[in-house]
Model the fold of this input.
Amino acid sequence: MKFIFMIVSAIFVNNIILAKYLGNCPFLGVSQKRDSAIGMALAVVFVLTMSSIVTWIFQKAFLEPLNLVHLQTVVFILVIAGFVQLTEFYVRKNLKNLYQALGIFLPLITTNCAVLGVAILCIRSSYNFIETAIFAFSSSVGYGLAITLFSGIRERYEICHIPRIFKGTAIAMVSVGLMALAFLGFKGMA
Amino acid sequence: MRVISEFTKGFWKDIPPFRLVLGLCPTLAVTSAAKNGLGMGLATAFVLVCSNVIISFLRKIIPSEVRIASYIVLIASFVVIVELVTQAYFYTLYEQLGIFIPLIVVNCIILGRAEAFASKNSVIYSFADGLGIGLGFTISLTVLASIREILGSGTFFGMSVFGKSYLPFSFLVIAPGAFICLGVLLAVMNVFKK
Amino acid sequence: MSKMVKIVLVIGVIGGLSGTSLTALKNSLNTRIEAQKDIYIRGPAIKEIMKNVENDPAATKKEMTFDGVKYVFYPGFKGGKCIAVAFESIGPGGFGGDIKLMVGFNFENSTILGVAATEHHETPGIGARALEFSYLSQYYGLPYKESFKLKKDGGKIDVLTGASYSSTAIVSAVENAAQLIRNHQKEIIETLEKSYESNK
Done:
């Protein structure tokens, strides 16, 4: 029951983009086409979940016993960057089809603040291993949901008449705001 | 006089996050109060200046294969310095900015300037560039935060502006308001753009 | 080959330098950071709990270890006698993770002096309501010799509707703290009085 709460809360109520303001740059950058949005969503789900788990293990196995918690930021970002590199390397060598779909999104993910953000949030909320895995996975699903829905809205904008000054990022920000407003409705559920 | 032009471009021509649409997360997340916006802007500016200077200084030594990894370590180190110093001297700010202080490390402005500018230019130009862009970012955040704080809670740097009878437009303080406010500001900026 | 050596060397030097200098900075700022936490987080909580004492609890704090766990005690004195103590206790399993509470004990009449939250990640307006005075005040004045249990487990403590995880975490934080006091009350009072005397 607790985990169901956690999943619903992370996907809808506290969506990492729409309520926690994490990962906005790639959210606006790759949401112009539905296909690329879905590719990005899948890459984020994999990398975010795995790197939260890996950084959690690093925190508990090295940083806390060695009393180096203040180096958390340095170590986490290196672990994430290394993990992304390894994944890209592996996917390019062994999974040709997947690489064609996801390849270009993988390097972008290192600077996606949702990845580092969720990794740090898990530590700050002192989640245990299973909670970390579930929280990270459902947060990333929330990210994927938001970016996929948003790309649908943006594709429509291409055939709409938009005032000149609102073209581009401005209208995108306003529509993210309206989406966030819609997601705010889920708050009543919790 | 290139130093001056590298410095001043950050205030209008390349002002983040309006002209350079980068670093949106802190822009949205911490700008619910002017004090937080200013604090975040200055913290980011500090990291940007330091990382620009040191990366430019080391640009001939760092091998290009591992340059991104080296940049990340250097940037992250300055972020940890900011983290420790704010914790020791500005604790309330540290509490309020919360997770967004460590997230300065993934602010794309910083890595972007390191890769696009500091790794190719001399120390003095990189310093001017970092300071200009950093202060531009600080100004943007403070302006956005002031609008949201004045209208959203009726205060400015914690001081009451409209008096007690003002009913705050608290929509601007929550997440949807942040997005829409930034969108409208971007549109206003576009009015002045050819 | 020399390229490889250079890469390893540069990365190693950068990493080593950043690690050591940051650790040095952390060590030099550590006492200040702890002092700031006393002022901004634990301070208000302690002040809320401790009234009518002659000393400043944060200035007379004392570290002690029981069963391998380190505790920081904030004592309250009156006429040179330790009449109260407050310390942080962790309640595992709130909705947003562990909840940290400052729990105060009154030694004069063996009751809970007060409970106040110092660190939590509960949802504002939902779980966080359980950390407000209106809910926590039910602990005030309860005798700590008995164990604290929720009503559904046969105790006296009410659950806040809609915030059952938070309520459970709070009750276990208070119970853990009370257990420590039940087992070691004499020892704690003696140590605190001794260090208060010597610092006078």
User: Anything to note?
Assistant: Residues 2-192 of chain B form one domain. The longest strand of chain B covers residues 155-156.
